Amino acid sequence: MGVASETLGAALEETLAPELDEHVPAPRRQWTTWLAVAAVVLIGLNLRAGITSASALFHGLQQLLGYGPLVASLLPTIPVLCFAVAGAATAWLSGRIGLERSIALALVLLTAGLALRGVDSVGLLLAGTVVAMSGLAICNVAMPSFIREHFAHRTSAMTGTFTITMASGATVAAAVSVPLAAQLDSPTRGLAVWALLGAVALAAFLPLAAVSRPRPLAGGRRHVSPWPLLRTRKGLLATALFATQALLVYALMSWLPFIMVSRGLDAAAGGLILAVVQVLSIPAVIVLLAMATRPRLLRPAFMLTASCALAGYVALLVLPAQLGLVPAVLLGLGFGVFPLLMLVISRSGSSAAETTALSTLAQSVGYLFAAAGPFGLGLLHDAVGSWTPPLVLMLAGSVLQLLLCFWITARERTAQP
């Protein structure tokens, strides 16, 4: 975490340098830049905490509420479906009310939905998850554009900051949710407490949203349709790679603690294994983004992280639970595909609206396909009574991810910082 703190500090120091907009007074430039940095950090902390906190508590939630295998498989699938459906509307929404106000609305949904999950009810657990994950979906799509809009010359530094804080929030949530729920004497209250983190992000973001206005593109347009990008090579590859990595990541985040519990570990140890995966992704992001900003090293960065993911799924398949730290380390290093792909997307297009269009396409279509991961693997495990067939499918997906990483970097090998 010391290296992560130094990297975050360097990013902040670089980012808070004077901006190049001569039409905005210097004091206002400074405070809005501070708010934008705070937004990247606080939203990043929220983006996976609501997911990993739930996955660590799935076993306790099922025991408390008594739902069956269908709800058990649906619950980890809801985030991915919401990312597909709500994420598809983000480009349109940001064109209507502005990028910052769209993010503010998303944080309202996130906070309200997380609070709803504190009630001991299967219906409210599902409804709260839908509301909260819809808020996360808007943030997922909007943040690459937000980074491009506010940090046009520092996309690598701020993408790294965003990804590090996202992994940090996920790590803490996975590690402390089970002990926290035990202290609160309820897994549902252990889920709802994360609404406080969403409320902090919302309170910090509201001043920035209040001073923002929708910014039209040349010709008076504020919205670029994402769907024509399906006819382009980059659009297709970005969508396919996003779908594959999202399927692997969210299936793993959803079921890894449960897999470890089914192999003999207790729930707290299963949550800690997931926390190790998340915390190892932090130094991986630092190294991989540092590589990606140098000429001809974007492809090696992609191939390195995708190879670690492949090795991690092999280890998870063949090693016993007592050696769970081995696949956890490899899979944590393998989580680097996401920030590298976000970096490619944030540099695409000639405006923030075009970046939003590619981000919307990759995430909405990608998450729609990725929803098959948590849902299908859960049902498959329930049908066969073993995690071996689901893990074999995830191993096959990691091979496809490796190939897509190679193909998408064919014309990206000289990425600029």
TrEMBL record:
Transmembrane segments: 34-58, 70-93, 102-119, 125-147, 159-180, 192-214, 235-256, 268-289, 301-319, 325-345, 357-379, 391-410
Top-rank taxon: Bacteria
Keyword Lipid metabolism: no
Record bears the keyword Ligase: no
InterPro entries registered for this protein in UniProt: MFS, MFS_Cyanate_Porter, MFS_trans_sf
UniProt xrefs under PANTHER family: 2-NITROIMIDAZOLE TRANSPORTER, PTHR23523
Alphabetized SUPFAM superfamilies for the sequence: MFS general substrate transporter (SSF103473)
Keywords: Membrane, Transmembrane, Transmembrane helix
Species in which this protein is naturally found: Arthrobacter mangrovi
One Pfam family cited in the UniProt record for this chain: MFS_1
Protein name per its UniProtKB record: MFS transporter
